[in-house]
Amino acid sequence: MKEQEYIEVYGARAHNLKNIDVKIPREKLVVITGLSGSGKSSLAFDTIYAEGQRRYIETFSAYARQFLGGLERPDVDKIDGLSPVISIEQKTTNKSPRSTVGTITEIYDFLRLLFSRASDAYSYNTGEKMVSYSDEQIKDLILKEYNEKKIAILAPIIKSRKGHYRELFEQISKQGFVRVRVDGEIREIEKGMKLDRYKTHDIEVVIDRLAVNSAVEKRLEETIKTALYTGENILMVIDVDTNKPRYFSRELMCPTTGIAYPTPEPNTFSFNSPKGACSHCNGLGITNEINFQKVIPNDTISIKNGGIIPLGEQKNSWIFKQLQIIAERYHFKLTDPINKIPKEAIDIILNGGKETFSIQSKAAGVTRNYEIDFEGIVAFIQNQYTNSDSSSIKRWAKDFMDEVTCSVCEGKRLKKEALHFKITDKNISDLAKMDVTELANWFANIESEFSDKQLKIASEILKEIRTRIQFLLDVGLDYLTLDRTSKSLSGGEAQRIRLATQIGSQLVGVLYILDEPSIGLHQRDNEKLINSLIKLRDVGNSVLVVEHDEDMIKHADFVLDIGPGAGRHGGEIVSKGTFNDLKSHNTLTADYLAKRKSIKVPEKRREGNGKFLKLSGASGNNLKNVSVEFPLGKMICVTGVSGSGKSTLINETLYPILNAHIYNGVKKPMPYKSIDGLEHVDKVIDIDQSPIGRTPRSNPATYTGVFSEIRSLFAKTPEASIRGYKPGRFSFNVKGGRCETCQGGGLRVIEMNFLPDVHVECETCQGKRFNRETLEIRYKGKSISDVLEMTINDAVDFFEHIPKIHRKLKTIKDVGLGYITLGQQSTTLSGGEAQRIKLASELSKKDTGNTFYILDEPTTGLHFEDIRVLMEVLNKLTNKGNTVLIIEHNLDVIKLADYIIDVGLEGGKGGGKILTTGTPEEVSKHKTSYTAKFLKKEL
Question: What is the distance between the alpha carbons of residues 150 and 608, in angstroms, rounded to a whole number?
């Protein structure tokens, strides 16, 4: 039977798809493009991917399925030729501080395996190589090295610990042993024998004393067994004449000092397992330590006047009574400046102490006893931080702390034993600190360093590690290090790591569906990405990409263009074929690809208002002590390859500074020296990439806040006033006005055991969400439910006389979302739509003319036409005198900027400098900048 050449989809109707039939060639690189909201994701994810998932779940027994939760059968007649599906979406990665690049890509897991099987252990006391012996080897060594000598064989049981050990000696004598060696001298065990409990001791049990020759071989064997059993795999041999000890062990052990390591397992090297994690920082590499500068910033003030910040000024409280007693004991007053107080007293105040003392009262001639029992301010703050449930108290405590590198493991996250397993002088933490390029070079010629036995064990592991490193290089992530936490990755980096992990698993015959993999990618890295996808295709997989990027469309074997409009005006396939076929068609996408339409470069750039924000000495993450000026009143674009430090400079440094200055925000900016010009900005609005609330009860009207205004309007109608309805009556989330059968959802869920749940329209309210009384209230002949059904375009005209509502709706229309309805569930919005709803709700806030807008890659999920519409909105804002700062890779946006700040040159260690600034024309003349090279072509 010939394998099918197409994935055939018949009658797809998910969301806004208009019952379409489509044939997608298999084992090809296929791109689906079209306006944002035209139905691309509905076809790729909600139809093809959902069906693939459902078929996989169907393979389980009915019993297993009830635990998995059924998956919806997508709204499609049938799909033929579908292979197993894997989707790589833009979900941002794990935000846990324990997740790192090494753990996501699984390279670290293989490194742990490699170190547990093929590394050499070294003693942390002497630096010698650790040794381990079998019982047979121990016997041969003793016979060889102590021939014709008198020896004692001992089992160490206590190693430098305090205690009197009376019970231990009783136990040893019960087992039939008569002698022990205590602190280097051999003694007989007496009844009731005990040691000084406050000194540290070493205790070994004497198992046997014998003169070594070939006749005692059998006896020696028994003795060694007993000694290793008693001493938990370690024994000690003493030459009776010289009294010199030598250790032997079944486990790894230092031949000189006798310290032993447990047999290494992969989790010995894991900072997420108690076996391997540094116990001081729990494997995080950082701890919160109290900064005394923050507790007592000014030591010329007295305690009474609030010199100790956490305590504040003197109150009538238990703590101040304790401080009063401490003051009497150390002869000072609470009104003295802190720098005049004796050192011991300050020590007790900060770190706590207990003591009893007596003071003679002069007047009465009696002695009174006082007791100090004070936990200390430091301990108090730390307890509040670790044990409090309230986030505001935690924040209060954290104000007095600094995040510092753990003092025990020095930020390496592992126990010291784990760090003394090495391969060619490098431990696992040294490897995790290298960037991927260095790591690749280190692994390139490592075989020569291994012994034959190690090579046999390591060859498979090395193969896995090398292929995975190669894929990271292929997708352009050569600057990352394995110990970089995944929460510090940008969206594009995270997605490409997932891509590298998927390519790394080398599956064949799979359908990969990718959602805009080029996000957060500089034009330069685009080629690398496309080559990775072509590789995936060439080994025999089908690759389906939802994408707007022109390069990606050019390289595709087959392109589907969905349109013609968005939302209810889309959902049809307007053209399909190769890139060249596509150009000749009459569609929006084709117009832009064939350059019949384009986003025009402005005639002249704005002058700005002559004021500047000047940031100096920014040095967070990879920034190299950067100073940069942001001209106000212009559209500024920050460019540079992925990982060059754009987000660190703007999102982690500039935004937190502005936010703290204007709104007293609590996020701490990355380190910087100074900032000037804050007085020229009176409002900052940051629009990042986090998704908007995705619950079925959230919709554009509730998200932008326009629904509250609409409800107030309905509550003011004469009929509502007569009935005494308040705005809450018109909410479908609270009791009162909503239909109680479906609790305002408009749908009822019918649970079907063993089958997916079915959503049916609520029979009481027919999906209108409200009860009959509420629907009787009308404004201009429309009920609240009718308003939710309106598209934004209709609503703009309907509410034109209510400025508050009109302004918000107008902004949504301006960003190109006129086709969605006010009540559309947020879960059904596409990524690009959700991004723009968020944009609209921020942009509809009144601007002051001195507002600073920060947008992080606002073109995510947008088609050429959508970008044009978006840029018009941003241009309007800038024309009013506001400053708009955009972090962006998209050249259509970059060429419209008035001022470009290009960060580079490479990503990671090779980045973090400002290469060039100026208008696009000036920047495009730069010799080395990658942005300049691509920008030149556009201009």
Answer: 94
C-alpha to C-alpha distance for 637 and 935, rounded to whole angstroms? 13
Contact present, 570 and 42 (Cβ < 8 Å): no
In angstroms, how far apart are the furthest CA atoms of the chain?
A: 115
How many other C-beta atoms lie within 10 A of the C-beta of residue 404?
13
Q: At 472, which helix (H) or strand (E)? A: helix 452-474
Tell if the pTM clears 0.85, that is, is over it.
Answer: no
Sign of CA dihedral 540, 541, 542, 544: negative
Burial class (CB in 10 A: 0-12, 13-18, 19+), 607: exposed
Which residues lie below 8 Å from residue 327, measured CB to CB, with a gap of 6+? 333, 334, 345
Element (H, E) at 260: strand 260-261
Residue type, 313: E
Note whether 852 and 832 are within 8 A (CB): no
Residue with the two structure tokens 């950067």: 626
Per the listing, tokens 């800038």 go with 878
d(CA 507, CA 86): 10
Report the alpha-carbon distance of residue 486 to residue 103 in Å, rounded.
Answer: 9
Owner of token pair 């404004």:
779
Over residues 601-643, the pLDDT tens digits come to: 999 999 999 999 999 999 988 899 999 999 999 999 999 988 8
Q: How many CB atoms lie within 10 A of CB 846?
A: 8
CA-to-CA dists, residue 253 to 36, 126, 151, 247, 323, angstroms: 64, 12, 21, 8, 52
Whether the bond into 529 is cis, omega within 30 of 0: no
Tokens at 347, concatenated = 């020590």
- Please state, in angstroms and rounded to a whole number, the distance separating the CA atoms of residues 626 and 616: 6
Residue type, 518: S
Nearest by Cα to 592 from 290, 854, 891: 891
Residues 6 or more apart in contact with residue 615 via CB below 8 angstroms: 626, 627, 628, 629, 630, 649, 653, 654, 657, 672, 674, 675
One-letter amino acid identity for 227? A
Residue 103 parent element (H or E)? helix 101-105
Structure tokens at 93: 């990665």
Strand order in the sheet with 78-80: 20-25, 6-12, 78-80
Count of residues making up the chain: 939
Q: Residues 64-74: pLDDT tens digits? A: 877 776 667 88
pLDDT at 591 over 50: yes
Residue 115 corresponds to which tokens in the numbers above? 């170190």
The pLDDT tens digits of the residues spanning 271-320 come to 999 999 999 999 999 998 888 888 888 888 888 888 888 888 888 888 88
Can you tell me the distance from the alpha carbon of 572 to that of 360, in angstroms, rounded to the nearest whole number?
A: 96
More confident residue, 694 or 873: 873
Sign for the pseudo-dihedral over CA of 900, 901, 907, 911: positive
DSSP 746-757: SEEEEP-TTS--
**What average pLDDT does the chain have?**
89
How far apart (Å, rounded) are the C-alpha atoms in residues 619 and 649?
9
Tens digits of per-residue pLDDT, 380-412?
A: 898 888 888 888 898 899 888 888 899 999 999
ω into residue 631 within 30 of 0, thus cis?
Answer: no
Strand partners, 213: none
Separation in Å, CA 616 to CA 7, 612, 628, 630, 854:
56, 13, 6, 11, 19
Contact 308, 296 (CB under 8 A): yes
Nearest in space to 508 (alpha carbons), one of 89, 88, 87, 84 = 84
Concatenated DSSP letters of 362-426 = TTT--EEEEEEEE--HHHHHHHHHHH---HHHHHHHHTTEEEEE-TTTTT--B-HHHHTEEBTTB
CB atoms within 10 A of CB 255: 15
Q: Of 620, 544, 385, give the one whose Cα is nearest residue 30.
A: 544
d(CA 304, CA 275): 48
